[in-house]
Amino acid sequence: MASPREIRRRIRSVRNTAQITRAxxxxxxxxxxxxxxxxxxxxxxxxxxxxxxxGLAVAGESVDVSQFPLLQQRPINRVGVIIVTADRGQAGAFxxxxxxxxxxxxxxxxxxxxxxxxxxxxxxxxxxTDQNVIAEFTQLGDNPSLDILRPIIGVATEAFIxxxxxxxxxxxxxxxxxxxxxxxxxxLLPIEPPEDIPADQASADFIFEPDPRTxxxxxxxxxxxxxxxxxxxxxxxxxxxxxxxxxxxxxxxARDFIDELTLSLNKxxxxxxxxxxxxxxxxxxxxxx
Length: 289
Fold this sequence. Notes:
Layout: H1 4-59, E1 79-84, H2 94-109, E2 113-118, H3 120-127, E3 132-137, H4 146-161, E4 167-177, E5 180-189, H5 199-203, H6 212-288
Parallel strand pairs: 1-2, 1-4, 2-3
Antiparallel strand pairs: 4-5
Helix pairs in contact: 1-6, 4-6
């Protein structure tokens, strides 16, 4: 059994660790609440834009799709994949789940791929593989604006328009709730009108001026931007939630460990006292004899 001094040293060390994880938990909780608010604020806008795109698809059935590069459907020979991870760890299985889903997607795709990594964890992982990483982005902050995200979008969009890749997919973590974050794969390009919106809802209350073609031409790039922006917000909310839960679990584990060490300390002190009493009694008996 360790000495009382050694056990006290370990208790101090674990208590310091618990203070750190508790502080990280509180910081993550604050960031998570702000990220959740941004997700909730952006979702209605993104959903409304999806409805408008569906409405344009209904209203512009006679429009020649070949005039719109972002709608071009062609045989898939090479794909582009944007993979969104975090810059930091200490978030439980958050990064591992995204990377695992990305690896599975690349295996199932069956085509060569060009990767764009967002976040240091994804960058570091795929740098150790034979995948072709054409661009990497890190340190985007906790509230990236569209201006910050446009270079990411530009890399993928430009490669698609030039015909260097035939589809672009976005892999990110969808925020469900504080305890649940779900890796998702979204086809970004070519843009496909949402099929889950009924035709009567898609065409209702819309008057397209000057005409659907002109509106579509202006709206398609914006639609791609909104999809990426929404995915980034979802991913950030997921990251902060996962980190808060992980730090809370670490704090709870540290407290449990402190309780165990305190019990060990009490036992060690009791054993030490018993030993000292036995030694005194033995000494007294020797003197009395």
